[in-house]
Amino acid sequence: MRIVSREEARRIAVRAQLLDGSAAGILDTVRRLGFLQVDPISTVAPPQQLVLWSRLGPYDVDELDRLLWEEKKLFEWNAYIWPIEDLPLAKARMRRRARSRHYEHERWGHEFLKTHAGFKRYLLRELERNGPMLSRDLQHDSAPRSLGAHRWWGSRQVTLMLAILHLHGVVAVAGRRGKQRLWDLAERCYPETDTVPLREADRLLGEKRFRALGVRLTPKGWEAHPDVDGCPVADRVIFLSPFDRLIHDRDRAEALFDFRYRLEMYVPKAKREYGYYVLPILVGDRLVGRIEPRFDRKAKTLEVLGAWGDTSRADEALASLAIFLGAERIRGLA
């Protein structure tokens, strides 16, 4: 166990997450990070795109789609984009999802599939005949109608059925049409792989996660991964997505950077401390401030709705972000 100071731990964390300017392309970055979280929120850009921009600067977003849907070097599962070499590990977790009834939501999912077995058969038959398909094209008289709203999917029961089958590894995301997912049978989307036992898959994923984070807090202090050094970090300025793994664990980020950060988009406006979609500002290996940008796509304007802390160099990151988004003007930062 290599215990390091908090100052060195910060440098190791930034370097492990490729936020030091060392990222060398989309595929390599996803492999090093382990995964990208997918979310439709696009106040600035979708998180999976914004996380890559923080590391690569302006890049070709279409390349991410090519790697996913044409070259098949990446795949999407459980709201994350993974490198294809981790598919055997993801399949181990799919198998666990398909059989586990440990948690209430798992038992609910299995009961949902059992109760609506007829619609499940219809959905899989339609995908086999006509896939890939959008969820709206799978509506049918046998679709469940009697349930109340689900906490995540509301009353969209077709989407709920697809989501459960997706977690179980029965159906897969085969592509996208705009923001809408195209669904198909998993066996037609995923290549054949070796079978990895769940315990081994969890061990390997845990090791990958530790390598990607660089450090973890233990009772003895900050433990550093042996493959990441604590050399000084390049003096670059960047904004971080709220879903960025450097700050995803809010308590860890606060302990490491002495920076308290919370996403307030679900907080009533009158109770927000900062703003709706606020991004931390990273300078070198320090979180120095926060900024609330918003991209108006119709006007091609990158607006700054608010800024807090040390924003003296925020214009550097704003210029790069504007190029990435295709913004023709920046408005709002004094």
Approximately what portion of the residues adopt beta-strand conformation? 15-25%
Reading side by side through the largest sheet, how are the strands ordered? 10-11-12-13-14
**Which residues form runs of ≥5 with pLDDT under 50?**
146-150
Mean pLDDT: 93
The residue fraction in helices comes out at 25-40%
Explained architecture:
The protein is α+β, with helices and mostly antiparallel strands. It contains twelve helices and 14 strands. It has helices spanning 6-16, 26-33, 47-56, 61-70, 87-99, 104-115, 117-130, 157-167, 186-189, 198-213, 250-257, 314-325; strands at 2-4, 36-37, 74-77, 80-83, 133-134, 171-177, 180-185, 215-218, 221-224, 237-239, 279-283, 286-296, 301-309, 329-331. The strands form four sheets. A five-stranded mixed beta sheet has the order 10-11-12-13-14, with helices on one face. Helix 5 (87-99) crosses helix 10.
Condensed summary:
This protein has 334 residues and is α+β, with helices and mostly antiparallel strands.
Features:
alpha+beta; 12 helices
List the helices and strands and how they pair.
Layout (H helix, E strand, L loop, with lengths): L1 E3 L1 H11 L9 H8 L2 E2 L9 H10 L4 H10 L3 E4 L2 E4 L3 H13 L4 H12 L1 H14 L2 E2 L22 H11 L3 E7 L2 E6 H4 L8 H16 L1 E4 L2 E4 L12 E3 L10 H8 L21 E5 L2 E11 L4 E9 L4 H12 L3 E3 L3
Parallel strand pairs: 13-14
Antiparallel strand pairs: 1-9, 2-4, 3-4, 5-7, 6-7, 8-9, 10-11, 11-12, 12-13
Helix pairs in contact: 5-10
